[in-house]
Structures are given as C-alpha cells and as structure tokens.
Protein 1
Amino acid sequence: MKKHFLTVCILMICTMFVACGKAGYRSSAEEPQSTDVSAGGMEDSYSDADRSGDASQSPEADHSAESGADSEAGRSSESAGAETSKDKDLSSKSMKDSRLQDTEKEVEEISGEEESVTLSDKILKAGDTMTDLFPLDDDPQNQGLVITLKEAKFYETPEDAGLDRLQMEEQTENFDISGNPEWCGIGEGKLLVCDLNVKNINHDREDELHISEIMIAYADPDTRKVGIVSCAPAYLSASSSKVGAPDYYHYQLPKGESKEMKVAWLIQESYEPENLYLCVTYDVKEPGERQYFKLTGE
C-alpha cells in the first residue's frame, strides 16, 4: 500500500515538472525579440520580414521587380529631362522678353518729349547724302557722320539677296504700326538690304560707332506721322564682332575715313515698302529739317 502511494506521488511530481516546462517554453517563444519601438527598431523588424518574403520569391519575380525599378528610373530621367528643357525654354523666353522691354525703353528715350514727328520735305533718294549731327559744346551743328545710300532693295529670303542666313540674326526687335514692340524673324516678312557709304567727319566715338544710329521708319500716308520700324538690323557687314555677340552692332571708323557696308533689316509684312524710309535715329535737328531716304521709287 505504501509502495503504491509512493509511486502515485512520483507520477504526480513528474507531471507537474512537465507542465511547468511547457509553460516556460511557450512563454519564452512568445516573448518579443526586442522592445525597441524607435524608428531603428521598426526598420529592423520590417527588414527581417522583407528578407523573409524575398527568400520565398522566385528568380522571375526578382527580375520583374528589377525591371519595374529600371522603368521607374527611366520615367524619372525622362521627367527630369523634360523639366530641364522646359526651364531652358522659359529662360530663353524670359531673355527675349527682357530684350524687348529694353528696346521699348530705348525708343522712349529716342522720342524724348516729342509725342509725334511728321515727315519733313527733306526727302532723299539713292545717291544722295544725309548728315548725322554729333553736337559739341562749342559747335551744336557739328557733323558727325555723312551717310550715302547707294542702293536699297527688298527681298523675300536671304538667299535671294546673296546673304548667308547663318551670318544673320534669326530675329530682331521691331515695332508694329501702333508702336508696340514685337519680334520679327527670318521668313516672317520682307528683307530690306541697303548698300551704304558712311564717312566719319568728326565723330568722337570712332572706335565704338553703333549702327542703331540709323533706323528704318514708317510714315503714315495720310497723316505723315513717323514711327520706328527697326533700329536693329539682322545683318551688318562692317561689324567689328560676330553675329549673336552683344557688340555685333558696333563698327569702327576713324575720323576722316569712309567705309562701304551692307546692312539688312527684317521688315514685317504689315508695312508697305513705299511708306518706309531710312533716317537717323538720334536726330537732333529740328523736325522740319530732318532728312529721310525714300526706299522705293525715284
């Protein structure tokens, strides 16, 4: 009887030890590996899960993921390229708008207090000479330049005029009949080519003369009111620089010397050639004494 009781007690104790061991094992298995809930801890947890998931993927799935990443990178590159191109276009447009504004300011300075100038009776033709005054303190009527118009012709293209369009400005800052600034490009209008002879009588700026001292003007056939068409030619054979450079419109002409030059202006289609004239831009003569070369007819 005692032996039987002892056996029962031993079995009960063993059962208790086994139960305690399972409980301890379950508790250990369910305990989290880390109690860190910081960003680093969360990243480690997700990384483990990702690695576990990646290990179960097939090679084809890996290749698909890589292809997707390459495609996304390509789209990002194309997007970046498009943005860069857009930025360049905006920058170019901004520069052009800035140049138009600068030209408009120059025209306002040229006009000064004169709100309206009418065509004088001093109309010249090819072969005549026109004076460009360069006032001095002791001689307000000092002759700076003498300009002779040898020939003026209108063409449809640079090639018709025998000019290389690669040596020309692609577009110039002009003005419409209302006086508003606008761009005029090659092929968008007519090409006026003038053969000139310019002589420096007594102009002090012999090393930095500027062709914008000569301009193309429009005179309304009814009111005879004069307005600027262009004072920035597309071509200047006598330029001391190269096309596209900031100083392209500059030329050199020492005192006492003369120079033959070919100058071409882009003219909008809205202007009739018979109403266009070549004249001095910064003309200090009285309006009635100003000279104008008629560019068509006798």
Note: The two ends are 153 Å apart (CA to CA).
Protein 2
Amino acid sequence: MSTKKQKFVYIFALVLSFALGMLTISGCAYFSQEKVAGTVMMTLALLAGVLHAAEVPFTPFANVAKDVTIQPQEAKNKFGASDYLTFPAMPKKAGMTAVLKLNQRIAQSRYAGWNRGACVVEINGKELTPKTADGKARLLYRGDIMRLNHHKEKTLSYWTRYRGHDAMPSFFAPTTSENLDPRALDREFGYDLYLIVDDVVSASAPNKLRILDILPKHIVNLPLFVKEATLGYIPNDKLSRETLAAAPQAAK
C-alpha cells in the first residue's frame, strides 16, 4: 500500500510529465524528448529522497559512530581506519535480529558519482562479508545491485572484492545531504545500509567495531565520512532482501 509521501511523488511526477510533454508537443525547441525523459527521471529520483528509510522497523541499541572522518592512506596494505569503537554486549532477543545501520559517503562539496569499493566494516576482528555465517544475504532491503541512470554504468553492486576485502560502495556527496546522486535510481533508503550482524556481535562481552577506507590516497584523496553507525534490532518477519514495499507481509 502506498504511503501519503509515495502518492505525492507519483502525482507530482504525472503533473510534471504532462506539463513537459505539452511543451514538447507544442514545438518548444528546448524541450526535446530526451531532455524531458531525463528531467522526469532526475526529478523522480530526487523526490524519492522524501521516502528515506521511513518504513524500516529498526530499534536502536547503541550508537557507536557519529560524524567520523577517516582519512585515506597511501602506504601499501595500509588503510585509513576509524578508532576501535566499542559498544556493550548485545543480548539476543526473541524474534529479533541484530543489525548495523550504516550511513557513509566520500566527503565532497557536490555530488560526483560513486566508488564501487571504498568502505569495509569490521566487528570483533571479523570483516562483514556479503553472506552471514549461516548463508543469509547480509544486506537488507536492497537486493544485489542499485540501478543507475548513467551513460556508461547501469548498475552498482553493493559488494565488491577489492584489495583482498569485501567492500561496499561509497557515493561522493556533501556530508550534510541525505539525497543520493540524482543518477542513482534506487534511493528509498538514501545512504542507510542495514546489515545483519548477529553472527559477529557478542551477547556476553563488549564489542569492537572499526570502519576502514581501503581506497589508496593517490586514487581518491578525500576522506570517508561516517555520518552514523548504530547497532539495533529488526523483527525477524521484517527481514528481506527486497524493499519493504515489495516484501511479502507476514501472516497476522
């Protein structure tokens, strides 16, 4: 079922499409079919930012990072890294799964695309991989790829094997923005990544989390910015690889 915000997006897009279509039909030289299509797509993408993460039933447990800047390194096999960030033992909860909510990007003053493999997360000395210990997809609500509106790249994988690590992509973007680059088409959750971590967190002892920037400085001389890293819980019946809107509802 569509939310009020989703309905607003749909209606606005229809009105915009109609208006631009009429301008095209009327013979206005500036509004070619290609420009109209591109404008509608970009506008839809930006408007979709209002839906950002609104439906995720995430219950916070411990915020371990806020506005952390990680500088890139140049030395071989040496990576930029945050300090070890500690959080308490994370008890098991019936019907719930431990999840890391991660919001990160490469800090830049304007939108400038993306890098396919910049960010690596380590909890208690174990790097997060695409699959959990029992073979489940670790990343929730996003599938394997993000669709792009780019003349060369049409998809962006959420996991890339780079420099011997399983890395996640990072967008080049301002630190204050929650809207993705307009060329990113799957944008319901903005920068937020929800990652299952119940196979790596401890329920009986304090935990340590570290975030790595594995891009060499000579490739990207810009810091990785972690806006938020929060541990929490999501109900088991709300765990899905697909968006919540597309996921089958649990029987009541």
Note: The chain has two helices and 13 strands.
Protein 3
Amino acid sequence: MTAKIIVLTVMCVLLCVQMGVYIHYKLQKKGRAYTLSKCAGSLIFTLTAFGSMLFAKPDGYTVLILCATVLSSVGDYFLSLPHGHHRLKAGAGAFAAAHCFFVIAFMLVGGFHWQTIPFIVLIFLLELLGARLIKLNFRGAGKSAASYILVVTTMAVTACSLLFADAMPKTAAWLTAMGGTLFLLSDILWMLYGLDKDVPNKVFKALNVVTYFPAVMLIASALYFR
C-alpha cells in the first residue's frame, strides 16, 4: 500500500503542476504551448491508469478504464488544436467513446440496475432545460450535442451507482463516483464556454480544467484500491 500511495502522490503533484501551466498558457492563448501542456495532463492520468498494473494483474475492468483514458487523451489532443468543425467532431467523438468505455466498465463491476434509469432521464432533462433557458447555441449540432449529454450523464450516474456495488471496495467506489461527477461538471462547463455563448470565458475555462483533469485522475486512481 505504501508504494501505491507514493506513486499516486507523485502523479498527483505532477498533475497539479501541469494544471497550473495549462491554465497559464490557455488563458494567454499560446497555441503550441497550450496543446503540449494539455497533452502532458492526458499523459499523466493515462500513465497513472497503466501504473496500476504494477500492483495487480489487470482484469476486464482495468482494461476498459485504460481504453477510456487513452480515448480521453485522443479527445484532448483534437480539442486542443485550433478549432475547426472536423477537429471538434473528432474530439467530441473520442470523448463520447471514452464515456461508453467507462459505462461498460462500471456496469461490468456494479451490474445494470433499472433504478438508475429515472436518475439518468431526470438529470438529462434538467440539463436540456438549462440549455434551453440560457439559450445555449449548439451551432447546428443540437441532436449530436444532446446525444453526447445523454452519454456523459449515463457515465456519471453509473459511476455513482458503484457506491452500492458489493464488488467494488468503498474507497475505489467513492473515488470513481467523485470522478464521474466531476467529469459531468467539466463537460457542462466546456459546453458553456466552448459553444457560442456570452459567458465569462476565462472563469469557465479555469473551472473546466480544475474539474476535468482531477475527474479522470480520480477514476484512474481508483484502480489502485480495488
């Protein structure tokens, strides 16, 4: 356990440094430095997930989480490039695939429970209502955006459902639930500043960073406590 804590501590410190550098370059809109710093964060949480295999033989859950972190890294890369329609679609597609892997992994351990469906539907409808109330402009991609919101909401709810799964140790379940919730919040923040809307960009960009990277890091860290 001591070795696990040391590894996680080192990776968390690196991530904190990376987040500071990333926010600095992102707010200053320095393209190449911004892209490199974001990819560095993706590399850190991906290596954290892979590092869990040093302490336990990987099972199906671990492999699925690894695939999800890699896909998140791919999404990070595309979204860090100068915005273009195809790059935006590629980034969002990679993240949607990552969320699908997360959902499959969470259900593999916690199983499928019909009780989660009302929560998914309720949260999804509240998100759509909120988007309508603030007149969020989806740039002509309303159906695609709604589908993505549904996927990430499903991921967050299934992550939280692990708190009631006997097969998942409580520490790992809490880390995963917090990670899934932060991931949902980070995507909501990204939509607020990333889609054509008059919002305080600098504030929302910073909040997106401090929710997204810790979100994936928490899910990856949970692998060390299974």
Note: The chain has a mean pLDDT of 82.
